[in-house]
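We emphasize that the prediction below concerns an isolated chain of 298 residues; any contacts that depend on oligomerization or on bound cofactors are therefore not represented. The input was used exactly as deposited, without trimming of termini.
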Amino acid sequence: MPMNDLDLLRPTLAFATVVETGSFRAGADRLALSPPYVSQMVSDLEARLGRQLLYRSTRRIALTAEGEAFLPHARALAEAFAEGLETVRDAKRRLTGRLRISAPTVLASPAFARVVRTFAADHPGIALEIDMDDRVDDPVAAQVDLALRIGDPGKDPRLARKLFTTRGVVCCAPELAGKLIEPQDLAELTWLRSPATPTRLILRGPDGRDHAAEPGRQMVINNAALIRTLLQDGGSFALLPEFTVREALKTARLGIACAAWSIPEVGVHALYTERRTALTNARAFVDCLQGVLASRRT
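Result of the prediction step, given as a token string:
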């Protein structure tokens, strides 16, 4: 099809709908458009074709000879378009197979659980396998279909897709939040961190200068739920992605230390394998993740 004919597709669908419904008003109702707009589309189609397709009167429409000849093709186009849309929608509903996902332990949170629940409900034909681990393995070597990463996505940009950015927050027990104002206030506490967290904690002050916090000790834990539980006991802090602890902060199960200080945002990335059979399922999960988390970030 010539590129300059592409803009005739919509008027052709409008023409077929008007004929099928018997009037411009009924056709406009089906298309959820205004009658004048639909009438103008058909007029524009006739002008481009250089032929009148419809006789118009105040009460009825009738096909001209040219309209009779064009109608079967317009109907075939409308039916093929509707069938194509339904095929794609059915394919989305009928995704099947296995989807293996690896993700850092810090993502084990109520927010991520919502993503998993939503995806499982939308795609019951997919068998999910989720490995929460802080190893930074090549997705192909690890035999996973989708790897989620916070921070550096790795060396191969072909496989990576940036989903969104998130800021880190220094979390602590709620009763400590008002006492931990400056980075040096963290010196007497234990830093609970996952293996994937950097070994140095750099905070940026209100004046724009960076300061390295120097906690009394570090404890490396590869379980986000355990980290959050220990935080509530007091005597420790942890650097966590804000979206993973938003509910705990809102309900005062956790507090924010050094609230006036900031931590540079980091990207959350999806790493795909190049196995075509798994790509559709992996992309569907990423779309679900972005949709669910986007609705919670506003």
